[in-house]
Amino acid sequence: MPRPEVLDRIKEAEREAEEIVADAEDERDQRLEEARNEGEQIRERAHEEAEQMADERLEAAREEIDAEREARLEEGQKARERLEAQADERVDEVVEHVIESFEEAVHAQT
User: Fold this and answer.
1) What is the rounded distance in angstroms from the CA atom of residue 107 to the CA atom of residue 100?
2) In angstroms, rounded to a whole number, what is the distance separating the alpha carbons of residues 59 and 83?
3) Phi, psi for 105 (deg, rounded to 5)
């Protein structure tokens, strides 16, 4: 094979190698960009899911607090009703005691 022909083949092979390398670099850059985009999407989804979970937990905590508050209010209402009933039961007794004490005080002064 003549020398000029060998040089042409070498040059052609070098051009092909450069094209292959350039194509590979372009493909690498494209894949890196796709990976970055996918990573960003995953990060965004994870952030949204975390916010949603936090909102759900907050709502559950609020519901639990509301239920506890209602239970305590109900307990307080029942206790108040019991105390009122006990007081009502003792009204006659207290009135009688006050009248007796008043009469004793009046008789003590006379």
Assistant:
1) 10
2) 36
3) -65, -40
CA distances in angstroms from 62 to 43, 65, 86, listed in the order given: 28, 5, 36
Whole-prediction pTM value? 0.53
**Digit-coded pLDDT (tens) for 36-67:** 999 999 999 999 999 999 999 999 999 999 99
Distance (Å, rounded) from C-alpha 11 to C-alpha 1? 15
Per-residue three-class SS string for 60-77: HHHHHHHHHHHHHHHHHH
Tokens 């019991």 -> residue: 82
Q: Two tokens at 104?
A: 């004793």
- Residue 77 — φ and ψ, nearest 5°? -65, -45
Question: Amino acid identity, residue 99?
Answer: I
User: What's the maximum distance between 2 C-alpha atoms anywhere in the chain?
Assistant: 155
Q: How confident is the model at residue 77 (pLDDT cuts 50, 70, 90)?
A: very high
